[in-house]
Write a structure and sequence with these properties.
With 153 residues, this protein is of the alpha/beta class. It has a single domain, classed as SPOUT methyltransferase, trefoil knot domain (Alpha/beta knot, 3-Layer(aba) Sandwich). 30% of the residues lie in helices and 19% in strands. It contains five helices and seven strands; from the N terminus they run βαβαβαβββαβα. A seven-stranded parallel β-sheet has the order 3-2-1-6-4-7-5. Strand 2, helix 2 and strand 3 form a beta-alpha-beta unit. The longest helix has 15 residues.
Length: 153
Amino acid sequence: MLHIVLFRPEIPPNTGNIARLCAGTGTSLHLIEPLGFSLDSRYLKRAGLDYWPHVDMKSWPSLTAYLAADGAGRRLVSASARHGEAIQHFAFLPDDSLLLGPESVGLPPDIQSMAERHIRIPIKDCIRSLNLSSSAGIILYFALAYLGELESW
């Protein structure tokens, strides 16, 4: 099973949208603190709608804590707007932890360096980056398609 790991997410609707994505794909969602919002946020809940009971979500005090516990033995793959292998050429593994950074600044270099592999979604230079929830959806569906997971749905 794939895992989406959000490092210090800042915008509740993005996280809610990603939670809904995770519910619809059977993907675990891991939130690395500090969060830019409360998990009780009405915006977070509204974005996830009535799908919250179907979301396997855990919150962690740090990326190190996640890696030592639930992420132990999994390959950590960081996503960046400009750094890494283009996702259409990347060989995903079934238990990859897909790491995405905060909306305003992306992943800090020290956090990116903790990842074993690095991927990017190719985009034109006229924009800085894609929306976090859009990026999570693109990456997750590329991974699921690569792994042949969509064939049985």
